[in-house]
Amino acid sequence: MDRLRDPNGNGRHSRLVADLLVMRLGQARFSWGGAGLRAAGAVRARYIEALRTADRHDIGALLRFARG
């Protein structure tokens, strides 16, 4: 796969930075739903919906997903 055109690259980078931040703050890494987010399916759909909710300034669903 061409890494420069990978549609999931920004998400992976964002999740990595989030994990590094919470670890630096003394917390456990996020589970990010406990499954791979690349493949289409119920877990990815929940993740995308949580991201859309966060875009509307409500991060609760994304935090629950990340810790779930």
Structural class: mainly alpha
Number of strands: 0
Helices and strands, in order, run as HHH
Our count of domains comes out at 1
Biggest sheet overview: none
Strand content: under 5%
Sequence stretches where pLDDT stays below 50 over 5 or more residues: none
Secondary-structure map:
Elements: H1 9-24, H2 42-55, H3 60-67
Helix pairs in contact: 2-3
If you had to describe this structure to a student in words, what would you say it looks like?
With 68 residues, this protein is mainly α. It has one domain (8-67). Helix content is 56%, strand content 0%. It contains three helices and no strands. It has helices at residues 9-24, 42-55, 60-67. Helix 2 packs antiparallel against helix 3. The longest helix has 16 residues, at 9-24. The chain is globular, with a radius of gyration of 12 Å. 4% of the residues are buried. The model has no long low-confidence stretch (mean pLDDT 86).
